[in-house]
Amino acid sequence: MAKPILAILTDSIRYDNQHPLKYFKQFQVKHFYNNAPYGDLSKSDLNPPAGGAIKWDNFDALEKKLLNLKPDILQGSEPYASKTALRICLLTMKIARKLSIPYIFPMFENRPVKDRLGVITGSILKKILANYTKNAALIFYLNDGAKRNLLEVSVDPKKLKRELYGIWGVDIGLFRPLTKKVTPQGCCWKGQILFVGRLDEAKGIPYLLDAWNSIKSDFQDIEMVFIGKGELEDKVKGEQIKRVSWMKTQDLPAYFAHALFTVYPSVTLKKWEEQVGTVNLQSLSCGVPVITTKSGAIPEYISDKVGILVPERNSKALAQAMKKLLKNPKLRQKLGDAGRKLALEKYDAAKNIERIEKILLGLL
């Protein structure tokens, strides 16, 4: 008997949202994507056992492909994300109506839409979201802010499910503690602190640099490693600072496992705030504690049992937290062990997808 087909419609594709699709067992998954900007996917990632990825170049072609495929469930985008995502939402409703199939979508956006886009645009998008949710069979939200945005348009609470849908979680086999520390190529320091992400204001780079520069003279055998690219990359330089250009997700675990801890000091901006903080989850899965901020949805995923949370835009608090972990290896071990346990319990992509599949089967 053929497996039911889940068609996923997205603008962009990356390792974090494509690779875990291999864990789908009850559905054949077809992931329709417009672009792959990160260059971090192999041929096997694009064609996992559960189903493959299909590139679309324009909406007319995408519509024809979907009508020919005749999926059993359609997953659209969220209208607050972008102009392309909004058009995907409209197409999702159209295809679902033509094929008489249920559609679902995940909600990540946690900034108030009127704050992000203004009163007029925000009001229009809220009306579109209200209509979109009215006809949706199910909506997965990933943080409290997304739930608030949904409830603002009077969505039926019975349609809401909190799951790591779209992010899925962490590959706990890939991101795992190493019994024998492996030093990544180019690393020669006794100890390292790690940052992974965009090198820009949103990720708190100015505050992290200020914090590290204020204490590094006390820890001359420690290096701060930045992995990523961005508008502030030219600022990431100096003694005891190393920058590694953006790398494939598959290559990150060795850096996490070698680190004493990870620092991820995101800040809230007018148009953006952290919706999950995947880097934090990856670090925990490697048994490496995190220092992060009380920003966006981060406190919903990280507690003081697995890391240290500090206020946003506070270089002094960041520096104090870094000194605390640098001077206390027992605390690092305690937090790291608790982080790995939390990752196994809540952030295992395979377990999360198994649970999500049961929910989706209930829609058929």
UniProtKB/TrEMBL annotation:
Which is one GO molecular function term here? glycosyltransferase activity
- Entry-linked InterPro entries: Glyco_trans_1
Pfam family of the protein (one):
Glycos_transf_1
Give all residue intervals belonging to the Glycosyl transferase family domain: 192-341
Stored PANTHER family: GLYCOSYLTRANSFERASE
- The entry's protein name is Glycosyl transferase family 1 domain-containing protein
Species this protein is from: Candidatus Berkelbacteria bacterium RBG_13_40_8
